[in-house]
Write a structure and sequence with these properties.
The chain has 21 helices and four strands. It has helices at about 5-10, 15-25, 30-55, 60-80, 85-95, 95-115, 130-135, 140-165, 170-180, 180-195, 205-215, 220-230, 240-260, 265-270, 285-295, 295-300, 305-320, 330-340, 345-355, 360-380, 390-400; strands spanning about 120, 180, 325-330, 400. Helix 2 packs across helix 5 and helix 3 (about 30-55) packs across helix 4 (about 60-80). The longest helix has 27 residues, at about 140-165.
Length: about 400
């Protein structure tokens, strides 16, 4: 049976059962007695199907059941015979109509059992009855074939995910509890295989950032050498197409970003981390990660992460004075005076947060700063507060203001 003939069979607008039946009658494969048997069987099957999916007493349900039983028989015939009409006609001759429709139902149940998504974990499925109700009304065999190929690939990717997970030291039992994307595990293992040092791991965001930082220092020649040194023979043959596809994605998508020297390490980690699997989703040592990915942030904050210190820093940036996490009271007063004379340029701090703060923190920092700015206007720009007492109370409550030492 040629592939072209099968494609022609798929493109026929009539149900495949009808096409095979017509062919069988024309070629004297199917007798009139067989047609009479089908005519006797079909109503019984239709009533059973209508009762299963609705009501056997309603005409619309009976009409839908007629479509379902023909579609199920057609699906079984075209998948079993691969579009060979003569073979399909012989199957109609040698089997009951209900047997053929049950065969189609069996194919759909097997399809339902396959993974809809390539996730390493326990996939939440609906009811098989709901699946059969929807799919038994589909009249295009290509929809089934596309879904079958997709789910077969999902099953293979899941198998690959568990295999490559072992390379990362992750057991199948652990991955099942994580509900992680299979491809992300494979991609992580391949990136380490390509560019990681021996026994290197990629457990958390700090290690991921460190690996990316190392790759950014590679020369084109070193990257080419790493690529050519990858031995496909180390991987099971059934996974080769998946490995080749993911390697292509790394080369086309990830490496160009890594070789862009204008992009900060922090931004790259933020952009790429969701494509890979990191065992520890949260950064355990925030200061270590910040120091690695955002040197400007680390230099100015000096490891301070409390809100008061950061608001002090942002106020300095908005006032265009040297950024500090603690301000002498005298400097704070002069800064308030400057705000009243020249305006409170809060957008300067907003822009600095967007360009210098670690991406992980930006959303929260911008929210904190916006809340601060909304309240600050009532105090820092209040011309009635001529002695700055209200402004200083506000800054003292929200920032680190260093008061002069008491005289002895």
């Amino acid at each position: 049976m040629s592939e072209n003939t099968f494609e022609i069979a798929l493109l026929d607008n009539r149900p495949y059962f009808e096409s095979a039946l017509r062919y069988g009658v024309q070629k004297a494969i199917i007798s009139t007695s067989k047609i009479a048997a089908i005519e006797a069987e079909a109503p019984k099957g239709m009533v059973q199907i209508a009762d299963a999916f609705g009501s056997k007493y309603l005409r619309p349900e009976i009409e839908a059941a007629r479509k379902r039983i023909v579609n199920l028989a057609s699906l079984y015939l075209i998948e079993t015979t691969k579009g060979d009409l003569e073979l399909a006609a012989r199957m109609i001759r040698d089997n009951t109509f209900l047997t053929l429709s049950r065969g189609g139902s069996g194919l759909l149940k097997a399809l339902f059992a396959m993974p809809e998504y390539a996730l390493l974990g326990h996939e939440a499925k609906g009811k098989v009855e709901d699946f059969l109700e929807a799919w038994s009304l589909k009249e295009k065999p290509m929809e089934y074939r596309n879904a079958l190929e997709h789910r077969q690939l999902n099953a293979l990717e899941i198998e690959a995910g568990y295999w490559f997970g072992e390379m990362l030291g992750l057991s199948a039992a652990y991955l099942k509890e994580e509900d992680v994307e299979a491809v992300s595990v494979v991609r992580s293992a391949l990136l380490l295989q390509l560019f990681g040092k021996q026994d290197a791991t990629m457990q958390n965001q700090v290690e991921f950032a460190s690996l990316i930082d190392a790759i950014r220092a590679f020369t084109p020649a070193r990257i080419k050498k790493a690529w050519s040194g990858l031995d496909m023979g180390e991987f099971p043959e059934q996974f080769h197409p998946i490995v080749e596809r993911i390697l292509g994605e790394i080369k086309a998508h990830d490496l160009p970003r890594l070789q862009d020297k204008a992009a900060s390490l922090d931004k790259l980690v933020f952009e790429l981390k969701d494509r890979y699997y990191l065992r520890d989703h949260e950064v355990e040592d925030t200061s270590e990660y910040d120091a690695l990915v955002s040197k400007e942030w680390t230099r100015l904050t000096k490891g301070k992460t409390d809100v008061d210190s950061l608001m002090t820093l942002f106020v300095c940036i908005a006032g265009e004075i040297p950024p500090k996490t603690t301000l002498p009271e005298k400097t704070a007063k002069s800064l308030v005076k400057k705000f009243r004379e020249q305006g409170f340029q809060s957008e300067l701090a907003t822009e600095w947060i967007r360009t210098s703060a670690p991406h992980e923190k930006q959303e929260g920092l911008l929210e904190d700063w916006t809340n601060f700015v909304e309240e600050a206007g009532n105090y820092l720009l209040d011309d009635w507060d001529t002695n700055y007492s209200g402004a200083m109370r506000f800054l003292d409550a929200n920032c680190h203001i260093q008061k002069p030492a008491a005289k002895k």
